[in-house]
Design brief:
Order of helices and strands: HHHHEHEHEHEHEHEEHHHEHEHEEHEH
Number of strands: 12
Strand order of the largest sheet: 1-7-6-5-4-2-3
Largest sheet: 7 strands, mixed
CATH class of the largest domain: Alpha Beta
Number of helices: 16
Radius of gyration: 22 Å
Oligomer: single chain
Structural class: alpha/beta
Bound molecules: pyridoxal-5'-phosphate
Length: about 400
């Protein structure tokens, strides 16, 4: 049997078993697959029952902004996979980050964050949270002294993505957690690039794991969603935000992500294999001046990445000589890879960070962040690796002639 009383058992299962089995409480219909509950509200047997449920005296479904069985199944499954007590699902990755800050910080509190963050996360911190008196200080991801130096008595949250996008820089999560906890702050890791299949930040000392389910958790570019995983205490505050402010996940999307989780490990292993093969191919190509992928032995943080991760992920960056024109010509010569901002898809995607994801940065900021004009980012998908190599070789070979 697999019902909610098996909660403790889920936490002892291996990740691949959790990904397929955890979280589903079978209904009276005895369904084998996880059902979708496309309903906005739930009914009560009596006025008294409604009163008890609204008053919180009795558990049960009320309204899908905060209690939907399909969403709950996704939350329980991801909580088990990340090794957290609780998960709250959200409408997008950005909603997950927004709910975390709204739930846990107040005006006057400060965030210390890695400089290498997803662009919208920086906008959220600087354009919106700053408006309400929450200030963010940015530091170089891998420089632990810089994190330490940015801490103040008002620091409540440390926020990082590791490995970074698109340069594949890594931070030592246990060391960062130690800094956070010594200052009574929380450490949140955006685990979008590796997923629990390749990295479990809570086991390494982080307090919160943040996901854009839009990426690898779905894995097939079909739906937007997000999630936060951690302890009951912090997640209860976050749940309050989602319940009241409404950035909730739709039951249909939750079902899509549940199906995505079932094949997550297999897909991540295949993404890693293809990315490493492509990194080696690019590293050996005479038109490529640099490859950024922590799976290469020459990457400055290869050892740290190998110790803290179970794989190096599916995203890499590479540089060509000739700046923007050369990078664009390699991108435009592809016929299989999609020129798009999305990543974590079975379809390989390619883009030019300096004019897209990092286009809002000034020239000095780009230089500081290592975003060169000749830099190209690839999210390596699951097409045949020889076809992916050939698609990039077309533009790279042309640069040599
Ligand atoms: C895409 C992404 C987000 C935002 O997620 P959405 O689902 O697009 O809102 C946050 N962090 C990282 C690292 C991302 O790649």
């Amino acid at each position: 049997m697999n019902d909610e009383s098996d909660f403790e058992a889920w936490h002892d299962w291996a990740l691949d078993t959790q990904a397929i089995r955890a979280g589903h409480a079978r209904t009276a219909e005895q369904e084998h697959g996880e059902p979708i509950f496309p309903t906005s509200s739930f009914v009560y047997g009596s006025a008294a029952e409604a009163a008890r449920k609204f008053g919180g005296e009795e558990a049960g479904n009320i309204y899908s902004r905060f209690t939907n069985p399909t969403v709950r199944t996704f939350e329980k499954r991801l909580a088990a996979m990340e090794g957290g007590e609780r998960c709250v699902a959200t409408s997008s990755g950005m909603a997950a980050i927004m709910s975390t800050v709204l739930g846990l910080l107040e005006a006057g509190d400060e965030i210390v964050a890695s400089r290498s963050l997803f662009g919208s996360t920086v906008s959220l911190f600087d354009k919106y949270f700053a408006k309400f008196g929450i200030v963010t200080h940015y530091v170089e991801l891998s420089n632990l002294e810089a994190w330490e130096a940015a801490m103040t008595p008002r620091t409540k949250l440390l926020f990082a993505e590791t490995p970074s996008n698109p340069l594949s820089e890594v931070v030592d999560i246990p060391a960062l957690a130690e800094i956070a906890h010594r200052h009574d702050a929380l450490l949140a890791i955006d685990n979008c690039f590796l997923t629990p299949a390749l990295q479990r930040p809570l086991a390494l000392g982080a307090d919160l794991v943040i996901h854009s389910a839009t990426k690898y958790l779905d894995g097939q570019g079909r739906a937007l969603g997000g999630a936060v995983v951690g302890r009951d205490k912090e997640l209860e505050a976050l749940f309050g935000v989602v319940r009241t402010c409404g950035p909730c996940m739709s039951p249909f999307n939750a079902w899509v992500f549940l199906k995505g989780l079932e094949t997550l490990s297999l897909r991540m292993r295949a993404h890693c294999d293809n990315a490493l093969a492509l990194a080696r191919f690019l590293d050996a190509h005479p038109a490529v001046t640099k490859v950024h992928y922590s799976g290469l032995e020459t990457h400055p943080q290869h050892r740290l990445a190998a110790d803290q991760q179970r794989g190096f992920g599916g995203v890499l960056g590479f540089e060509v000589e000739g700046g923007r024109a050369a990078a664009w010509s390699v991108i435009d010569a592809t016929r299989i890879l999609s020129i798009t901002g999305n990543l974590g898809d079975v379809k390989s995607t390619i883009g030019h960070p300096a004019t897209t994801t990092h286009g809002r940065l000034s020239d000095e900021q780009k230089l500081a962040a290592g975003i060169a004009e000749g830099l190209v980012r690839v999210s390596v998908g699951l097409e045949d690796i020889e076809d992916i190599k050939g698609d990039l070789a077309r533009g790279l070979d042309a640069l040599m002639s």
